[in-house]
Amino acid sequence: MALIVMKFGGTSVADIDRIKNVADHVKREHAAGNKVAVVVSAMAGRTNELVDLVNQATRMADEREYDAVVSSGEQVTSGLLTLCLQDKGVPARSWQGWQIPLQTDEAHGKARISDIIPDDMLTSLDEGNVAVIAGFQGIAPNGRISTLGRGGSDTSAVAIAAALGADLCDIYTDVDGVYTTDPRIVPKAQRLDKISYEEMLEMASLGAKVLQTRSVELAMTQNVRLAVRSSFDDPASVEAVNMQTNSHIGTLVCSEEEIVEQQIVSGIAYAKDEAKVTLVGLADQPGIAAKVFGPLAEANINVDMIVQNVSADGATTDMTFTVAEPDLDRALEVVQEHEDELKFKDLQGATNIVKISIIGVGMRSHAGVAADMFKELSEKGINILAISTSEIKISILIDAAYQELAVRSLHSLFGLDQDDH
Amino acid sequence: MALIVMKFGGTSVADIDRIKNVADHVKREHAAGNKVAVVVSAMAGRTNELVDLVNQATRMADEREYDAVVSSGEQVTSGLLTLCLQDKGVPARSWQGWQIPLQTDEAHGKARISDIIPDDMLTSLDEGNVAVIAGFQGIAPNGRISTLGRGGSDTSAVAIAAALGADLCDIYTDVDGVYTTDPRIVPKAQRLDKISYEEMLEMASLGAKVLQTRSVELAMTQNVRLAVRSSFDDPASVEAVNMQTNSHIGTLVCSEEEIVEQQIVSGIAYAKDEAKVTLVGLADQPGIAAKVFGPLAEANINVDMIVQNVSADGATTDMTFTVAEPDLDRALEVVQEHEDELKFKDLQGATNIVKISIIGVGMRSHAGVAADMFKELSEKGINILAISTSEIKISILIDAAYQELAVRSLHSLFGLDQDDH
After folding, report:
1. What is the ipTM for the molecules in this complex?
2. What is the CATH number of domain A262-421?
3. CB A79 to CB B66 under 8 A?
4. Which of A131, A187, B181, B301: disulfide with B296, CB 3.0–4.6 Å?
């Protein structure tokens, strides 16, 4: 018998029929003898409706009241799933964040979890009840409802799994796992059986939308084993699989040690929401970087990749950096404001770029991965605009027109293509 | 400076524009220097939507989960009204039932209030904040959300007014007060400036829908002064009226002693949702009434009016009684099941009847009111099928076809018609 946490997002609970389908998934795990805690999001679209009402009420919302309004969506789903479970003969009760209690700080609207006191819920689980938990919410020290920010239900699920000492936290979503890359671009992309926390973290922060970065971080630090699975599978045909043994359902996100056969490169991610800023003919003098990036940091604009080239005359330099696309206009303004100091000849902004990243813990022990990558791209005639690396990933910036070609070529190069059946 | 409770129902908070209008009403009272607590219902239609979702989930709902789902409607409105108030510069915060706390018993779905601990809310009111309270809900001893039953927000408002020691509880609704009778039937009906608790209780239980019977009972026992006012008035044109002085806005429901010029008859109510059962040729013997009404009581069917006539032969009797219309079929079944014991010749059910009631505390000290009433009806050719009386009301049962004629005639007879202007 295991204790498992199952999390279902908004599309999985979009209407009563979908909620009944979720109840069948939960019933399967409960019938297999597991203790089951379920974390649910609001019904798809409901959170947006509530946010819209708040925005109609005022332009400067008190975050405490925002939380009171918006948290109601998860409250409704928790009650409805409990009723559907009871209707199928599964004993269950709903838990609001303040009932557990799941305690947070007072940063309403984007609160961080400070503590979870699981005693009452554990007693209820011991009595055989499924615990159906309203995700995304907790209670702040002021006694008010707090929310964890958009996508916070993943974080709720992982934190609750840690507090309960769960054997596994199943994240049910609208895809059936984590893939080597986006299957819409590379039809030969494969679902990964296992991926390490570190790799998943890079995948998530580099554009793979399947899990919230924050929830993966929390799973890594709390050592919670995560599985990404599809809620759209037919519950009746899914066997009660104990994910502790080898399984072919979904992707397990776990510590590196659990992964026996480690690939050098596990996956390829891409991010299109980057924009490029280039300062042409900048005076090449000490401290010039600080003069560029200091004001950007003050304006709360995150700079991602930076590349600096000495120009032909030797006295000036060209500097290129990337920011998130929504920040581009503001970044250009900030730099323009400092024109007198920086003395650049030209300032350019562009959004027709894409960041491609190869990710794998195997890179730590394998030299030559970067060289292989650059050679492949060169042979395909793809120009690299910027490079950034970490211990387990290499990211490059290229012209957006070459996105599909680059992803497909690298996917083949690093042996990730699925065999034809 | 007074402490007032204002209550707004679902149609008054149906959308953001209506909620902003409510905020203007609240702002007016707050600006006049009053401490203000506001009780709100769910946005019109939302509670029905939530109940519908519950019914789709299961046919046998766990009332605790029903409460978790359905109470979310008031939670949303409380946050939205708070935001609208803040947007207009009025300091405010929302209060859920469990935050106050408003404690109830564990009769989920129809809970009764056991205690309200107003200390935190009074502190917040003293600091100048408007308290915006989610109506209809509280917290049960099991730590779960409880609801007070449909229309429970009126009861919330009166109970909170009692707990806070409020000077007045304003019930804002879609009519501008309590009328001498239904103005749709009698265009000359007048709005009452004042009405006693006892009369309002009779009016409410006899078909006038403006206030919940339960909330009037509570107001009477807790001595809370109630006012019925319209939320559709233009807030800007309504002066900050202290209802403790004479006022021409709305109807004040108060103790009899506050009403100086007491009418003999204050109002005329009618109820069409009654049905009539007649047992013809029943054996006229001691204990026959117990044999009829015992089984009905066991079946949880409420009997309202009863009339028994000795028939021509002297040995048998005809008995007629009324039940709520939805109970008619079940009442007929129950009586039929006991046919052997009761030995009636015929059993008849009918719904084409109406109950007309004249109500007034002045009847206590005036003889002849019933005689005047019966004479008037007789002159109009209206046959009285049954009569029941209390100290302050006389109810009669008549053929439904005569409803308008009877109400209009009695309205004139007892001097309730508005003067022509």
Report:
1. 0.82
2. 3.30.2130.10
3. yes
4. B301
